[in-house]
Structure prediction request, 341 residues.
Amino acid sequence: MEYFSLQTNVNQLRIGRDVSKGIGNELGNYVVATMEIPWNIIKKSIGKSPTHIINVTSVEMNWIDQEIKKIPEFDTIVGIGGGMAIDVAKYIAWKLNKKLVSIPTILSVDAFTTPAAGVRVNHDVQYLGHSSPDPLIIDYNLLRSAPKELNIAGVGDLFSIHTASFDWKYANSKGKSEYPYKEEALLGGEKILEFIYNNIGNIRENNDNGLRAIVEAYISLNTICLPIDHFRIEEGSEHYLFYELEERLKRPFIHGNIIGLGIYLMSRLQNNKPDFITEIMNESNLSYHPKHMNIQKDSLQESLLSLKKYVKAKDKLWYTIIDDSEIDNDWVSENLINLIF
Ligand SMILES: [Zn+2]
Prediction:
């Protein structure tokens, strides 16, 4: 077991095999936000039981607020699961000012290392509050009890640096950047990408080094993004396609996979080394094809054709390649040709 003191929102990181075992014994009255599958895996080894379990089925703010009313007196909220469970725990920790413990059981999204909770208000994403896990628990064996592809999905929010950083540079070149342009932040992002490219084999295998690489890369990303107070090097047009699809289809996705689809398409729209990033995504075994996410061809076609209108209607979305794009039927048919439906 190793302990780290970190210069990010993560107060303490425990990383190693079986480090989640008996965590319940260290906590007072605690409540768990989780889902059926991860809870069934961890409940026997958690030690002392929680006083209340929230079975997370939604990240809609109204839904979480209703769940909060059912919680008895407690002092710690423990998020156990993927992005949704962790986001619900983060929101509750912030709203009720309680201690937060995060135990991701898959690495499909960077939610466990970011301070704001990504909740939805009428299917529209909102990032709320500020929370810090203490500790963040990365248990290699627990992560490996999930299907490999759910951890591999963790690279989606890292490969997105490829397209998002391009968008920031593009916005800046048009005099449209919402933030002071920081070359240093972009160079830091490039280093993270290189680090991940160098660990692709380990990531694909889900071995200790691969799982650790994803977590370290997320933490490095925070070290760059938290001081400048935005994630523009990591979030751009590839995320906006996901937001459109989520609002259109009204259902959740494995975050890294859908971001991978966004990277595939937006790197093509940007003319930003699409073959290179596609090859890397293939090498990592990231499941970015629409078939894996049950996305029908006509839904994706409509989403792409509406994308520019969608981002223009949302004031809070940053300026990206989409703002100046001409996505028409020809572009769509040409660029969907090698995707699997
Ligand atoms: Zn993301």
Summary: The longest strand covers residues 133-139. The radius of gyration is 19 Å. The chain has a mean pLDDT of 94. The chain has two domains: 2-143, 149-336.
